[in-house]
């Protein structure tokens, strides 16, 4: 396999930014080589220039390339302070107002731990409510794993005991060592490939909650602002936007902080 020249790196850098809004800094050069090498071997292509030509003319391969580049690190009930905010502030307010229908978008859902964590929280505290969760990601690879709703049993330790007993099956026989979401939980979640960098988003209606955590860190400033604006346009006036703990919107005029990296629109202040 040939080396990745600076010219080729710049071509991939521009393509990934154009297609996904992800900015690959020069420090990501080694990462790009490692992530693209398996695709090049699968296609029997010896040079990065040949692979760039191929991926530029094959939309299916472009999807596979973006799958390879995406980093998908997640776990159940990540950033627990946000789930405490949901349980202790938002849900009691909804119950007091008699809310019976909750729509949530998990944007950048990875292998599904986030939307399933949200589903468990809502189903446990809002019995009888209609819960609708859209879980989306750029990567088709992780979406397939998320839709399956099966994880190594070791991940069970991340889930509060009450939720685990109510919503998870422990694998037996050939499924030993695994756990699976119960059908009633899985039925609340719809999975879809959505590229946050491309507008319009193929969705209808607005959401009470939008989780877009640890996604914006991969965008440059202009792309980040465009995505935030698009997400807020799809948020209910009284809805909340949840970001990752290292993603701040304190200088963003459309929102105000209402919780731990949780934001509401200023119009509702």
Please describe the topology of this protein.
Elements: H1 6-20, H2 29-42, H3 48-56, H4 59-69, H5 80-96, E1 101-107, H6 113-125, E2 130-137, H7 140-148, E3 150-152, H8 161-167, E4 168-170, E5 178-181, H9 183-186, E6 189-193, E7 207-212, H10 221-233, E8 235-243, E9 255-259, E10 262-265
Parallel strand pairs: 1-2, 1-7, 2-6, 7-8
Antiparallel strand pairs: 3-5, 4-5, 8-10, 9-10
Structural summary, described in words:
The protein contains ten helices and ten strands. With 269 residues, it is of the alpha/beta class. The strands form two sheets. The chain has a seven-stranded mixed beta sheet with strand order 6-2-1-7-8-10-9. Strands 3-5-4 form a three-stranded antiparallel beta sheet. α1 (6-20) packs parallel to α3 and α2 packs across α4.
Low-confidence stretches: none
SSE string, helix = H, strand = E?
HHHHHEHEHEHEEHEEHEEE
Rounded average pLDDT:
91
Share of residues in helices: 40-55%
- Report how far the terminal alpha carbons are from each other: 57 Å
Read across the widest sheet, the strand sequence of neighbours is 6-2-1-7-8-10-9
Radius of gyration using CA atoms only = 20 Å
**SS-based structural class?**
alpha/beta
Task: Specify the number of helices.
Answer: 10
Largest sheet: 7 strands, mixed
Strand content: 15-25%
How many beta-strand elements?
Answer: 10
Cα shape: globular
Provide keyphrases for this structure.
seven-stranded mixed beta sheet, 10 helices, 10 strands, globular, 20% strand, single chain, 269 residues, alpha/beta, three-stranded antiparallel beta sheet
